[in-house]
Amino acid sequence: MLASSAIFRRQQFLIRSLGGHSSNIHRERMQAIKCVSGSALEADGQSILRAIVPTFDPFRYKGQAGKVAVIGGCREYTGAPYFAAISALKIGADLSHVFCTKDAAGVIKSYSPELIVHPVLEESYNIRDDEKSIISSKVLADVAKWMERFDCLVVGPGLGRDPFLLDCVSEIMKHARQLNIPIVVDGDGLFLVTNNLDLVSGYPLAVLTPNVNEYKRLVEKVLDCEINDQDAPEQLLSLARRVGGITILRKGKCDIISDGETVHVVSVFGSPRRCGGQGDILSGSVAIFSSWARQQNLATGDNLRGSPSNPMVVGSIAASTLLRKAASTAFGKKKRATLTTDIIECLGISLEEICPAS
Ligand SMILES: NC(=O)C1=CN([C@@H]2O[C@H](COP(=O)(O)OP(=O)(O)OC[C@H]3O[C@@H](n4cnc5c(N)ncnc54)[C@H](O)[C@@H]3O)[C@@H](O)[C@H]2O)[C@@H](O)CC1
Ligand SMILES: Nc1ncnc2c1ncn2[C@@H]1O[C@H](COP(=O)(O)OP(=O)(O)OP(=O)(O)O)[C@@H](O)[C@H]1O
Ligand SMILES: [Mg+2]
């Protein structure tokens, strides 16, 4: 009895958080979700994918299907920015850029000729103190001249935590925000943002994609408490509200997504392999899917029927759904040997099964 009343209260809470009682909007949102296991609400990721993935059109030109840029890649990490950038391309973006340090650029280029790689970021070890101000301005100028072309930035995969580099990235984020360019923040970008919440606070075009550690740091900083797994959706909703209604995708056994208005869960089974890099696929995927969701919103001036109204939430649900399906397919083929590159190879076929190309 106690357990069932707790579940009932949880359902009531989630229903309220999914848009309250207002008739049509509520009914439409409820079509996009269905109740699973009595205590969590599952997003209909496949319907969302079908609604936002653009059809092929002979009159479209290069760039219209999306241009994304990843800010990340340093001496230690070259895989993460590659995974994020190539995933956006494999899903259907037309162009994918990487802005990284000089040390990382040659390596990332060697992984793929498809990526456009800019060796513009600098780390402290490479520069003198008296050069910092001038180099910081140059880094911003080098990125800013490209900025207006991008539909979305992904800040953080493999960025590292060098203080000078992070200061430069803060300036890049402020500039992107001035231009209203969406920003997906992941990896070390979350380390930066957790210590400088003003960079994203109140920016509706920001998405944070924390893993378990990154989420713990965010919760401690913003809510000044521990992670509460019993009431995970409620805690995420509060967190998103406290950071001014930005979208947060909490990764884990289930991915939970909230923008402070609604809470959605994606729990379709993925892969039991926890190899590094799957979060990087996710961040690149959120970038392209949210760009497509925004395009839909702008084109129709309306929400997608039966979907959440926030394109950043829509893009997050789509990305989580596809990543988990691709991970499941890759695991089916490679079992214990499954690696992130195998999952990336399954993005195309997984999307094809949901939205055939013709
Ligand atoms: N091939 C690459 O270049 C990769 C680079 N990566 C980059 O590496 C940087 C640091 O990211 P991390 O994800 O390692 O940073 P985190 O701060 O999330 O993780 C730090 C450590 O915590 C451990 N950890 C993970 N899950 C845990 C759990 N549930 N409980 C307790 N400990 C746990 C991890 O093993 C890791 O050693 C980021 O820039 C990220 O983008 C990663 O994306 C992985 C792939
Ligand atoms: N315990 C789990 N069970 C099933 N799927 C999971 C689990 N943990 C994470 N995932 C899936 O893996 C994806 C990546 O999450 P993860 O926590 O590995 O990110 P990450 O640590 O940032 O990865 P990266 O190594 O790229 O930095 C999530 O979107 C989620 O769907
Ligand atoms: Mg990560």
TrEMBL record:
Enzyme Commission (EC) number: 4.2.1.93
CDD domains from the UniProt entry: YXKO-related
Entry binding sites for (6S)-NADPHX: G158, N211, V212, N213, E214, Y215, K216, R217, D280
Catalytic activity: (6S)-NADHX + ATP = ADP + phosphate + NADH + H(+); (6S)-NADPHX + ATP = ADP + phosphate + NADPH + H(+)
Signal peptide coordinates: none
Annotated YjeF C-terminal domain residues: 45-354
Binding site for ATP: 251-255, 270-279
Record keywords, A-Z: ATP-binding, Lyase, NAD, NADP, Nucleotide-binding, Phosphoprotein
Superkingdom of the organism of origin: Eukaryota
UniProt cofactor(s): Mg(2+)
Keyword Cell inner membrane: no
GO biological process: metabolite repair; nicotinamide nucleotide metabolic process
GO molecular function, one term: ATP-dependent NAD(P)H-hydrate dehydratase activity
Family that this chain belongs to: Belongs to the NnrD/CARKD family.
Role of this protein: Catalyzes the dehydration of the S-form of NAD(P)HX at the expense of ATP, which is converted to ADP. Together with NAD(P)HX epimerase, which catalyzes the epimerization of the S- and R-forms, the enzyme allows the repair of both epimers of NAD(P)HX, a damaged form of NAD(P)H that is a result of enzymatic or heat-dependent hydration.
Protein name per its UniProtKB record: ATP-dependent (S)-NAD(P)H-hydrate dehydratase
Species name: Nelumbo nucifera
Source lineage: Eukaryota, Viridiplantae, Streptophyta, Embryophyta, Tracheophyta
